[in-house]
Structure formats: structure tokens, C-alpha cells
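Step 1: inspect the first sequence and its C-alpha cells.
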Amino acid sequence: MTGEVYLNGKFIGSAEKPKEFAGQVIEARRKGLLSPELNVYYNDRTREVQIEAFRGRLRRPLIVVKNGKPLFTEELMKKVQNNELSWAEMVKQGIIEYIDAAEEENCLVAFSEEELTPEHTHMEIMPIAMVSLCTSLVPYGNHDPSARLNAGSKNQKQGLGLYAANFLIRMDMDTNILHYPQVPIVSTMMTEMSHYEKHPSGQNIVVAIMSFKGYNMLDAVIINRASLDRGFGRSTYYRPAAAEELRYPGGLTDSICIPDKEVKGYKSEDVYKYLEEDGIISPEIKIKEDDVLIGKTSPPRFLSSLEQFNVSSSERRESSVSVKHGEEGIVDFVMLTENMEGNRFVEVNIRDQRVPEIGDKFTSRHGQKGVVGLIVDPADIPFSASGITPDIIFSPHSIPSRMTMGHLIESIGGKVGSLSGRYVDGTTFDSEPEGKLKAELLSMGFRDNGTETMYSGETGEIYEARIFIGEMYYLKLKHMVANKIHARARGPIQLLTRQPTEGRAKEGGLRLGEMEKDCFVAHGTSLLLKERFDSDRTVVPVCENCGLIAVSDRYRKKSYCPVCGDEGKVSDIEMSYAFKLLLDELKSMCIYPKLVLKSKYE
């Protein structure tokens, strides 16, 4: 029975024996007669052969196995070690081939040489090669579900550490430096291969898994204040501000200087107090919101033909660079240079020390992320029989549903490593076995299951339950509450809709949505909605005769309708400005939006 053959999803012909045909194509590829980019998939149910060579396929290298024996032998290993055989040559000779997701359906891949049987077609070069670089840094990753492994991989990318050694002279946007980063005690093979010790992004800390007054429920963690005082999670946040002397038509330019009092838009003297004679702030000055960093004046926005040749300082406008809303810090570094257009360019870097506070985000390498729920004084923190107090108290409810066993094994591994003064290998699929760690822990006089008798820090009473306590590698993430906290009463509004601006940077309003509205109604506070929904309240004169918006002449103190003239009676109506805008837009589309008015006293 013949089978159809498709190339990149397009029918190209039929094959009498489709399975044998697929095998022949693979053999030709291994011999170098066909492109190594080609992949073949035989569908046994539909007897179709799918040959794929298009872009964007995820492919991974595997060792080819024939008759239960891998083609990559000990002799070839020696050649590779002596640089006599390259990777490209092995791919060309068909010893190693790249397989995509479809072709892997026809393969039987062995983890190791011990597992090989005559049915196997391929063997892993190394089991850890099936995951990415970030994922391979997760210790005991084979004990975690795939969803948590993905989360752990993503979390490591957001961890604070040392992103570049020359950070002091760089002007990168929104960066963080961890003050005391450490190399993880429970590491993997990739930790060494990626030179992780040169750019670590976490710290080894003692973690106890227990509840504490409910402040670590819903993934929150509790931190020991003594740990913060000793440097745990401390980081510095850097943010640059820049100004450029732009050139305008007619020979006009911006000027970086201390603005004169005659300049349009001049702020108070207080905000310019830190500027030097050149209009730029000095390093190591403590600044707060609205302080000017770089003083600047610009020519007026709109010039008439007469004004073009007579621009005095009084007609210039203020355009200084100030500290943004909700920010503060210390001026770290000032840079004066020129940009590509040859304009004078000034950048000021601001730094702000960040000590962990309630709301800051921390995570282990297993996707167990959580925010700080409480910072407890060292005197009130539970302690073990040997006097050890945990740096973090982690909720036990975070483990069963997520099934992150790697998190627990890392805790035992870290305990063994810190007690015996060595690094523990937690490489995925090739780690130190859990049994060996337990036996070593037992030999050092601790319980092999990682639990210890703990005492209440407040009362000194012994806890009835034994507490699981160990050592783990924790990361502080870049999501800090200081960068996100936002509140507003009144403030700036948009020009078009007269509604509050959007976003924290623009000092924007906090939107009350449908569900929030339902909460107010359910609580019986529906009159509060009248206050919440009048951010763009406006009074508009409306003609009672034609129902269109009338004109209010403030100079003559009278209102009239441009359509009806003196015949129409004009009433002032309270409405949302956005609704008035809608009426205007409907009129522009030649739709007659007639407002039928009715007395509210009827």
C-alpha cells in the first residue's frame, strides 16, 4: 500500500513502501548526500511521510545508535580530546544528528549507555543537554514538575547580581547590583561551565519551613531582621537622567544653565539649589522628588516672523530635567559628552540603596517565588537546639500542590554542604543521590530527614512538631515595592478627555473597574461611586429646543444656541467630559445627537 510524501506540508508524490522510504532518506542524510537540516517523520496511522526543512524548528543533537551500540565510541572520544575530531565532522559522518520534534516521534532515545537495547535508535549526549542554560542551573531539576522548572528558569533571569563588572561607569536604564552575591553551595555542572562564580545572583541562607502567625500564607515569606542588618538582600538601584542641547531652525539652541527668574515656567528657587554654575548637579548630593538635576532653557515653541531675530532670555522657556515622581537617591556619576549630531549631551546617574522591605520579591531556584510578608526581630524568631535562627521562614503549604521536591532536596544538600564545608553537586539527572546526603547528615549528628527540634523565640517553648530546616540559595528579584508603590488624590489630567493620566511615571490615577464597582455596590456604598466616577465632570450649556450643545459667552455673561438663536432656552447640564467629546465626534460624522432634557424635580 502506497503512502503520500509531503515536503514542508506540500504534497510531492507517493512512495510504495513509505516506512522504508523514510529510512532511506535518513540514511542518505547521514551519508552526507542530503542536507543535515532535513528531518523526516513517518506517521504509521496515516502512512504519510512528512519531510521538513523549513525555518524555525527546534532541533537538538543526539548520538546515533545501531544494533544497540552507539556510533560514538571510546576511540572517537580520545580523538575529540586530542582535537583530532570536530563536532562538525561528527555531524557530517552521521555519528551525531539533529532531530526535531516530529522526527523524535519515530525515535527511541536512551538516557545512558547502560539503558541501551537493540530497539533504541538514539542516545543522549548528556541528559542535561535537553534543558536550557538557565534551566540547567536549577539543582535537582529532575525532581520538579516541568511548569516549576520553567518558572525557576525565568526567575533566575530576574535575580539581582553583578550584571557587568564596569557598572560604575555605565549608564544603563533601570539596573540593580546585589551587594554581597555568593556562589551556590548546591550547584550544578553548568554553574562551573558558565563561570557563574563571576556573576552570581543570590545568597546562601538558612530556610525553615513552617507557619508563623499567618504572615507567610499565600506564598509570602518571613525575613529575620538580623539577616538584613548583616547584608542579606541588600542592593543598589541605578537610574540615569539625560539632557541634550538641541539645535532648532533659525540658529536657536537649548542652553544647559541655571534658568533665570524671567524664563517662562520658572520653578521655585528651592528646586535649583543643588545646581553648580554650569547648571549641572554635583556627585554625591542626596536628592528627592522634583529636585532639578540638569538646568536647561529652550527657545519658545512657536515663533512669528518678527520674533525670529529678537529672542531675549525672557521669552525662553524652562525645560530642566528633574527627579521623577516617587523617586529619590544620591547622584552617583555625572557624564559630559557629545552625541552623534555633535550636540552637547549630559547624563546623570542616580543610585538608591535598597534594603529588603515588606512587598519585595524573593525566590528559590525552583519557581517558589513570594513577597516579604513580615520582617521579624531576631529575638522573636524561632531557634533550633544548636541556636541556629532561620533567615527566611517559608510556608509549608507551598510544597504539596507544586510538588517541588528539588526544593526540599536542595535544602538537605545545602545543610550537608555547609556542615561539611564542600559544594554539593545537584546536576539534573546526574546529581549526588538523596540517600548519600541523608547518610552524611546522619553521620554529623543531625536527623536524616532534615527536621530539627525548634523553640519559640517569643516564649522559649518547644514546638510539638519537628521543623524542616536547611540551607538554600535564594535570589532577590528586581520587582521591588519601591519601584511600584503608587497612590494619588488629585493630579494631572489628559488634554483631550480631561480624565486622569495613566501610569505611575505620569502621576496617573488608579482605575476603578467593573469588579471594583461591584464591590462598592455589594458593600452598600454605592454613593461612593458618584465621587469615584466624576474625574472628568463638566458643566455644559445645552439648548432645550434643539438638544445640541450651546455656547456660553463668559464676557457677556449670557448663553445662546448657535442653531436656534434667541428662541432656544439654554440650561447648564452636568455631564462627563468624555460624553461631551462623544457628542462632538457624532456631529463630525453628521449624526444629530439630540439631548432630550427633563427637569429632575418633575
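Step 2: inspect the second sequence and its C-alpha cells, then contrast the two.
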Amino acid sequence: MRASDSPFVADWFIVSLRWLVLLGLTISLSLGGQLLVLPNALLIGLAGWNIALTLLTGLNRRLVRHREISLGVDLLAAGLYFALAGGFASPAFWIIVLPLFTAAIYFEVMGAFISATLMMAVQIGMTVLQTLAPFALLILGASVFLTFLIAGVFGYLSMRLIQTIRLARQSQFEEEQKKQRTENDRLRATNDRLRAIYGLTSTLMATLNYQRVLDSILDLSLSILNLEPDAPPDDRLICAVLLFSKEESLEVGSARRLTPADMRVVLRGQKGAIAQAIENDKPVLLKDVRDDPELTRFVTFMSCNEIYCFPLRSGFNAYGVLLFGHPELKFFTAGRREFLDILGSQAVVAIQNARLYQDVVDERERMIEFQEEARKKLARDLHDGPTQSVSAIVMRVNIAQRMLSKDPKAVSDELGRIEDLARRTTKEIRHMLFTLRPLILESQGLVAALQSMAEKTKETFSQKVLIKVDESILESIEMGKQGVIFYIVEEAVNNARKHAQAGCIWVNLHLLKQGLALLEIQDDGIGFDVAAVNRSYDQRGSLGMVNLRDRTELVNGVLDVQSVPGKGTRVQVYIPLTEEAADRLHHSSGKQ
């Protein structure tokens, strides 16, 4: 027995026609009053046989040599019934057409004519056995003619039907094969694209060169947007990476097919699709670039009917956007956008890594600059302070030596002045050593170090410094940051002492709000024009403001200097105590 995944259509035709024939025979016998005669047992057996075939057909199963057996049973049943029922005398004599149907469907025209020949032999045999009357011969001739006519008609119809079914199956098979090939090609292209994405994203993760990361992002985007693996790159696709600069403006970091003029475009990123994408942290598909107030500044993008804008953002940190434009409508399909979203997510990580690496490099260079500036500051302070004092001591000792022979009584007063100068020089040196490395900070903490600095400043320079610290917040500040805070205070106090002519300097460290501390250094000195100083700062010899800004970055804080000529100066340093507070602080300061 054989099974199939698809139905046997010919078997369904056969069992259906057999049921129709059996129904017709039953009606004919009923009308002829011969329903209960003995030969009808063959019809009951034929019905049972058809039930079995119907079940097999419903299960998509066949017997071995199913067609031959089915036709043989029909031939045998039809011939026996025709003979036993009395030939043409029976109302069911037309049972002889049953094997013609089966033969026509299973074996087409040739099978139908062979079955018709066999049935003709049965008819002739019965007619010869019964009578050779002219009327019987006429009936026999008509029956034989109709038998062959039915065989020819059904054979032809069956042949056309089988051809139609075969053509339909062939067409269906070819269509399925075509769909399968198309699906295989799509899967192969998808796999190739995914392998390319994996390879290029691995390159993104491996490189720490900022410009190489940007170029790799655009090269990868051009690759994955080309859906046909063997097709040449689409030279109508425009793409660019826009990144925020230190001035919080968007500049073109890298691009493909932008004009030189477009490469110099600078945006604020506060309107249109770019602002929407960054604010909502979701990609934006723009249908008409002419409605966008910022993208219209790019002449190249004006030829695009669709622009896809992907935000390069992680948490509160917005790095910029990826822009893709194409003149074709509906170019950015769901599949292409999905690949671009994957690329954009990987690009954010790569840009973060590159920036972190660049921050480490910048931090190393800044530390080197700190050390160099500390050495220069120490050299200046030694030159302006102790060195001059030691030179003065040497000169006064020389004068005292000369006075010994001329005025011995005045030598005593001169030695007293030399002693005072030596003591003051010693204090200056000790103050310098204290600021270079305040050991009390390591042993007793920030409050004691600030108090000691205030005392030494008062003792050495007669400068009044008042310290106020909320000690409860020190538990949230690690020792390294406390050291940086000390140096921020020392720098600000030193600047005020040297330049502000202040009578008093106030230092206040307190909790501003949950997770955020505020360090304030305020004086009542002469003040200055902050904007004017910042404009000409590169021409100044002092680096006090630069040191304050750099040291503020070491505690991940934000510096704010407020001053008005004649009204003193206030230096404010906002210090986050948690990562969440740092994100909120820099996000709010970035908006401002």
C-alpha cells in the first residue's frame, strides 16, 4: 500500500462516479420492479468495495497496482451482473458503462476502448445465447455503438481533464519551486547581509579611531541597504553622520555623496526631524524634506523623497544622528529600516567606545599638563617668593658683615630683620609644601585639610578665609574626589588672594539637593568681567580658570563663575554624588 501527501484526484472521480452509477442502477431496478432479485447481491458487494475505496482515497492511500485492480473489479462486476440479470432484458443493463468510466479516467482513450471492446464481447455473447432475432440484433448494434461512443467521449474528456490537472500540478510545482528559489535567495541574501553586518560591526567594536568608526558606519549602511547581493551599490543613496561638538552644535563628522558646501553645514538640532528623533530617542522617517526647517540647509538632501533619521543616543547622552536619504519613494522599507536600526544601535556603542578611548587619551594629556603646570607654578612661586626672600637674606647678611666694622650696635637690629625675613620665607615654603601634598588630607580628611589651609593662608599672607562644610555629605565622596575638591578650593582661594584684593574669602560645601553637592568660593574683592577674561584668556599668563575647569571635570562636575566688577566673585562647582545625578546634571547643563 502506498501513501501520498496530496490527494489522488483520479480516485475521487472514480469513487464519485461509481456511487452515481450505483444510485442510478438502484433507481432503474426500483422502477422496473426488480430491486429484490438475486443478481443485485453483486451491486451490494460493489457498494461495499466502493466504501473501502472511498476510505482509502480519504486517507490518500492506494493499493499496489490500484488502478488495474479497480478497473478489473468493475469489469468483472459489470460483466457478471449483465449476464446474470438477463442482458438487455434487465432495467440495469446499462451497468456496462461503469468500467468505461473507470478505464477512461485511469487509462484515457486507449483504456476506454479496450474496456468497451470487452463489454461488447459480453453483449454479443449474451445476445447469441438468448436469441438471434432481428430485433435483438438491432438492439445489440445500437448498444455496441453507444458503448464505443461513450468510451470515446469519456476517454477524450478524461484525457483533457488529466492534461489540465497535470498542467495545473506542473504549474503549481513550478510556482512552488520559484517561490522556494526566491525564498532561498532572500534567505541567502539575508544571511550574507547578516554576516557582513557581523563582520563590520566586529570591526566597529575593534577600532578605537574615531574617524575610522564613522567611515565604517557609513560603509556598512551602504552595504546593508543594497538588498540584491550581486547588484552594484546604489549611487543615489546619500548618508551622513552628524555629531554634537563642544559648542552643542551638529557638525558633519563623515558623509557619502554630500557636496563640499554641505560638509560645512552646522545645525543646532533643535527643530524638525533631527530634534524629534533626539528628543524621543526614536527614528524618524521624513517624507518631504522641504517641510523640515534644518535639513533644507543641505542642498544634496533636497533631491530626496525620503529621509531616515536615526538618533545616536544612549541614556541622557546624545552624540548626534545618522541621516539617510534616497530619491525613490518607499525606499526605506520595514526591512531596510530594521537593518539600519541594528546598525545604529551598534554605531552608538562604537562611538561610545571611541569617545571613551579619546577621553582617556585626553585625560592622560591633561594629567601631563597638570603635572607640567604644577612644576611651572612651583617654579613661579619659588621665584616670586622664597627665592627672592633668600636673595634678600643674602644681601642683608652681606650688609650686616660690613656693618660689624662701622656700626656694631646696628648689626643687632639688622640681624633681627634678617631673622624675621627667614621666618617668613620658611612659612611660605611650608605653605607651598602643604599645598603640593597636604598630608593632613590623607590622615584627618577634607574638613581638617581646608581648616589647615585657611590657617596657613592667614598666617602666611594675612588673608582671611572662612570654611563651612556639611560633613554629612563627605561619606558620599570618595577620598580621591575629596583631594580634587581641596585643590579646587586651593586654586580658587589662591586666585582670589592674588587678584581680587579681597578682605575675606568664604568657602561653603553643602548638599544642594538629593545626590548633588554645591561647592561655593566667594570673595568680596574687586571682581572682573567674566566674558572679557574668557575672550582674551589665551593671551594671559595665568591658568587659574583653566585649572578650575579641568579639576571640575575630574569630579564629573559643572563649573559656574559669576563676577561683576566692584562686587566680588563667586565660583560655584556642582558635584554629583551618584551616576544618576551626574546624568541629570550634564543633561540639564547641555540643554542650557
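Step 3: confirm your contrast with the notes below.
The mean pLDDT is 81. The two ends are 83 Å apart (CA to CA).
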